[in-house]
Amino acid sequence: xxxxxxxxxxxxxxxxxxxxxxxxxxxxxxxxxxISKGVKECAKKLGEEGLETSLAAITLNKEDTTKESxxxxxHLLVLWKVVGLKPEEIMEELKKRESVSGLIxxxxxx
Length: 110
Prior knowledge:
CATH architecture: Orthogonal Bundle
Order of helices and strands: HHHHHH
Largest sheet: none
Structural class: mainly alpha
Distance between the termini: 38 Å
Number of strands: 0
Number of helices: 6
Number of domains: 1
CATH class: Mainly Alpha
């Protein structure tokens, strides 16, 4: 499997989120409904999904962890959209951190 194929579904999901943010009504689209509620509600939903993912992992339930992880990724992308972030910006930040130890990067945060 190539790198592109591994993340193709996330790219497709991002395109769907972008489309629904512009072309769908809150009555017809979950994405549009979330975005219409604003950043606070989107952030709250992301937090809920993060907790649900963590709890599923603690129980060592792989199926539930997988499903909750999908929900978490979806809500993260919606949050990016509502705050005006693009995946390219996230990838650029990941690239900057490539050659830096996670411990060092964390220590250097302001």
